[in-house]
Amino acid sequence: MVICNYSHFKSISITPSTNRCRYDTSTPRVPTFRCNSTLNSTQLRAEPEPVFTSVKSFAPATIANLGPGFDFLGCAVDGLGDFVNLRVDPDVCPGEISISDIHGTGTSVKKLSKNPLWNCAGIAAISVMRRLGIRSVGLSLSLEKGLPLGSGLGSSAASAAAAAVAVNEIFGGKLPVSELVLAGLDSEQKVSGYHADNVAPAIMGGFVLIRSYEPLDIIRLTFPTEKELYFVLVSPEFEAPTKKMRAVLPKEIQMSDHVWNCSKAGALVASVLQGDLRGLGSALSSDKIVEPKRAPLIPGMEAVKRAAMEAGAFGCTISGAGPTAVAVANDEERGREIGHRMVDAFMNDGNLKASAVVSKLDRVGARVISSSSR
Amino acid sequence: MVICNYSHFKSISITPSTNRCRYDTSTPRVPTFRCNSTLNSTQLRAEPEPVFTSVKSFAPATIANLGPGFDFLGCAVDGLGDFVNLRVDPDVCPGEISISDIHGTGTSVKKLSKNPLWNCAGIAAISVMRRLGIRSVGLSLSLEKGLPLGSGLGSSAASAAAAAVAVNEIFGGKLPVSELVLAGLDSEQKVSGYHADNVAPAIMGGFVLIRSYEPLDIIRLTFPTEKELYFVLVSPEFEAPTKKMRAVLPKEIQMSDHVWNCSKAGALVASVLQGDLRGLGSALSSDKIVEPKRAPLIPGMEAVKRAAMEAGAFGCTISGAGPTAVAVANDEERGREIGHRMVDAFMNDGNLKASAVVSKLDRVGARVISSSSR
User: Fold this and answer.
1) CA distance A339 to A301
2) Which of A31, A340, B49, B272 ranks highest by number of CB atoms within 10 Å?
3) CATH class of B230-360
4) Interface mutation target, options A249, A255, A282, A284, chain B, most CBs of B under 10 Å
5) Could you say which EC number(s) this protein's record lists (chains A, B) (predicted)?
6) Counting Cβ atoms within 10 Å, is residue A40 exposed (0-12), middle (13-18) or buried (19+)?
C-alpha cells in the first residue's frame, strides 16, 4: 500500500490494483491504480459521465521561485510545455487509469515511470478522478514531454497540469480551477515537494502568488495585456544537484536580508500589476537569500547573469531550482541577443553547452487542444 | 558641532550659529542653526527667492510597519496630523531657521526641543533649505502638534513632512517630492532611525512601498479611488518602551517564517492595488515575525486584536512600533463599533484607557493649507 496525499488536510490510501477487473483479458498490462476512497463524501456525489471519448491537453513551462518570491511566486511561459492524450479505455478497469505511453525528445524521458502512482501526470489524474468520484470509467493516458526533466522549468508541474485538465475535461469540466491546482499539488508533493509556484501558474497561466498553503489560497497577478514581456530561458547541459540545491538553503535568515527580500517581493508584485518591466527585472535580480546560495552550484551562473544584464536584460535570476537561467526583456530581438550572450557565458565561464529560447508570458495556462466524442 | 546627514550618501556639518548675524538685535534668541555647506554643489545653484512671506502646511498621521511590511510599507490616514506655520523672518539670520513656538494638546509636546537641530521639523526644514541653497533668507517656524508623541502614528514624520513642504513652498516649490522625502528621512534618521515608511507616506499620501534605501526608491501603491477603506486607530494611554520594542526584534528568522511573511507582504501589495479589502486585512493580520514579539509588550494588545476581528474588522495589527492598534473596515459605522470593542478590550485585558478614531486613507499627503505674499 502506498499513501498518497490528495490534499494537505487529508490523506487517502491508494492500493495497487492486484485483482483483475471485469474487462481484464488476462494479457499482461501496465500497472493501474485505483483510489480506495469509498468512505469519502466526494464519492457520494453523482458520478459524472464522460462527455468526450478522448481529449488532448497542453500545459506550459513555468518559472517558480521568481527572484525574491521563493516558494510563492511563479509564472507561465508560452511555447514550451507538455501534452497529454487521454481517452476512455474499456480495457482499463473502471475507476482506474493506465499510462500507455511516454515519449519526448530528451533522453531523460526514459527515467519516467509508467506506474501512475509514480508519475506526475498519473498522480494528478488519479486525484482529479477521485475528486470527481469516477468509479465506472477507465482511462488511458499518453504523455508527450516537451520539457526536459530537472531543468527548472516546471517539467513535473506541466505534466500534472495537463493531466488534471484533461481528466476534468473528459468528464465535462466540472471541477473549478482551485481543485485542479490541488490535484496538481498532490502530484508536486510526491515528486518535488509541497510547493505550488509551478503547478498553479501551469494550470492558471500568467503570474500567480501563493498567499497561503493552509488552506491553499492563490492570487492571480495580471500583467497588463498591452505591455510586452519576454523571458529569455537559457538551459545548460547540466544536471542541477537537487539535493545540494535544497541543502544549501539557509535555515535562518538575517533580519536585514529578510526586510530586503520582503520589500523586493512586494516591489515585484507591484511591478507585475503595474506593468513596470524595469521594476520587475530589478526585483527579479535582487534575491539576497536563495540565489546567492544556489548560483555557485551552477557552473557559470554568476557570469551568465552579468552577461544578461550587460546585454540589456531588465533582470536575471535562476528559474526554479535551476539550472536554467531566466532573463527578462521587452523586445524579442533584444531577447535573442541576450540569449546568445548568456549561452556564450555558460560556455566561457561554466564550460557548459546551453540553449536559449525567447518566450512570452503564457496568460492561459493548461488548456484543452482538441477533444473527440467518438 | 553636530553631524546631520542630509542624505544617506553624504553628510554635512551643521554648526550652532554662535556669531550674531547682521539682523541680530542682541535680545536673547532661540537657538538657530545654519547648514555649513558652502562647498556643496547644491549651493552653487541660483538661490531661489521667497515666493510667499508665510505658508501654513499640514502633514497626516501614518501607519508604518504595515503587518508583514516591517520597515518598507506604510500609509497615510486623514484627519490627524501636524501643522507648520512658516514665515520669512528678518530677525533670523539669513540661511538660518528658528523655531518660535511649539504647541499642541498633549502634555508630551513639552518634551520637544526648540533647537532646530534636535527637532524633527527643524531638521527637515534645514535639509530643505540646504537642498535649495538658501543663504539670504531667515525663516521662523511654529509647530502645532496634532499627533501625540510615541503613539505609533508617525508623529515625528508628520512634523518633518509638514516642515519640508512648507519650506519648499515658501521658495516656490522647486524641489521634487523625492527630495522632500530625503529631507524628511534626514529627520527620521536623527530621531527614530533610518526608515522611510512613515515619512514617505506622510509626504506622498496613500500607500507607499520602499523598494530600496540605497538609493532611496519608492513606489506609490494606488488603492482604487472607488473603494471604501477605513482605519480604526485605537491608542491606549501607555508609553510603548521604544528600546524594548527594538530590542525584542529577532536578529535571525526561520526560513519558513521568512517565506510566510514574504508571501503575505506580496499579498498585501496585491490587495492594495486590486482594492481587495478582505485580502488587505488578512495580510495585515498575518505578520509572524515582528508583531508576535511586540504585541506582548503592549498590555491587552492580543485581546484587542481578537476583539477587532470578532467585531468584523478585516484585519488588525500594531501601528508602527505601537502602542496604537490599527484595524481595517469598509464601513464607517462598523469602524466605530470595532473601535468601541477595541477600547473595551484595552481596558479589560490591559487595564489601559484608550481612545478610538475612525479615519479614511489620506491620498494627498503633506500639503499647503494657506500662503500669504504680504
Assistant:
1) 13
2) B272
3) alpha beta
4) A255
5) 2.7.1.39
6) middle
Mutation choice for A interface testing from B246, B258, B284 by most A CBs within 10 A? B258
Listed residue (B92, B152, B77, B187) closest to B304, CA to CA:
B152
The C-alpha cell 528559474 sits at A319
Please tell me the distance from the alpha carbon of residue B242 to that of residue A265, in angstroms, as a whole number: 28
DSSP class of residue A141 equals E
What amino acid occupies position A278? R
pLDDT tens for each residue of chain A, 374 residues long: 223 333 333 333 333 333 345 333 344 444 444 433 333 444 446 899 999 999 999 999 999 999 999 999 999 999 999 999 999 999 999 999 999 999 987 667 888 999 999 999 999 999 999 999 999 999 999 999 999 888 899 999 999 999 999 999 999 999 999 999 999 999 999 887 888 999 999 999 999 999 998 889 999 999 999 999 999 999 999 987 777 888 999 999 999 999 999 999 999 999 999 999 999 999 999 999 999 999 999 999 999 999 999 999 999 999 999 999 999 999 999 999 999 999 999 999 999 999 999 999 999 999 999 999 86
Cell of B105: 494638546
CA distance A374 to B45: 81
Q: Would you state the cell numbers that stand for residue A178, as one nine-digit string?
A: 482551485
A72 contacts B211? CB cut-off 8 A = no
Domain spanning A2-219+363-372, CATH class:
alpha beta
Query: How many CB atoms are closer than 10 A to CB A357?
Result: 18
Nearest to A266 among B255, B258, B265 (CB): B265
Check CB contact under 8 Å for B209 and A263.
yes
As a residue count, chain A comes to 374
Rounded CA separation B157/B43 (Å): 26
Is the CB of A263 less than 8 angstroms away from the CB of B221? no
Judged on CB neighbours under 10 Å (0-12, 13-18, 19+), B372 is: exposed
Grid cell, residue B302, equals 492580543
Q: Could you tell me the three cell numbers for B362?
A: 489620506
- Residue B262 and residue A209: Cβ atoms within 8 Å? no
C-alpha cell at A218: 492563490
How buried is A296 (Cβ within 10 angstroms: 0-12 exposed, 13-18 middle, 19+ buried)?
exposed
Residue A206 and residue A147: Cα distance in Å, rounded?
18
Query: Which of B75, B223, B255 has the highest number of chain A CBs within 10 A, making it the mutation to test binding with A?
Result: B255
**Grid cell for residue A322:** 535551476
Do B308 and B331 meet the contact criterion of CB atoms below 8 Å apart? Answer: no
Phi, psi torsion values for A87, nearest 5 degrees: -145, 150
3-state per-residue secondary structure call for A284-336: HCCCCCCHHHHHHHCCCHHHHHHHHHHCCCCEEEECCCCCCEEEEECCHHHHH
Calpha distance B56→B58 (Å, rounded)? 7
Q: Count of A–B CB contacts within 8 Å?
A: 118
Strands (E), B124-215: 139-145, 207-213
The helix (H) or strand (E) run that includes residue B35 is strand B32-35
Give SS3 for B3.
Answer: strand
| Domain boundaries of chain B, sorted by first residue | 2-219+363-372, 230-360
Ramachandran region, residue A237 (left: φ > 0; alpha: ψ -120 to 50; beta: rest): beta
Which DSSP symbol is given to B66?
Answer: B
Helix segments in chain A, DSSP class H: 120-132, 155-170, 177-191, 199-204, 242-247, 255-274, 277-284, 291-294, 301-310, 332-350
Q: Out of A72, A251, A252, whose CB is closest to B266?
A: A72
Same fold, A2-219+363-372 and A230-360: no
Spatial distance between the Cα atoms of B332 and A168, rounded to a whole number of angstroms: 45
- Cβ of B263 within 8 Å of Cβ of A212? The answer is yes
Interface predicted TM-score of the whole assembly (ipTM), two decimals: 0.87
Do residue A254 and residue B259 have CB atoms under 8 angstroms apart?
Answer: no
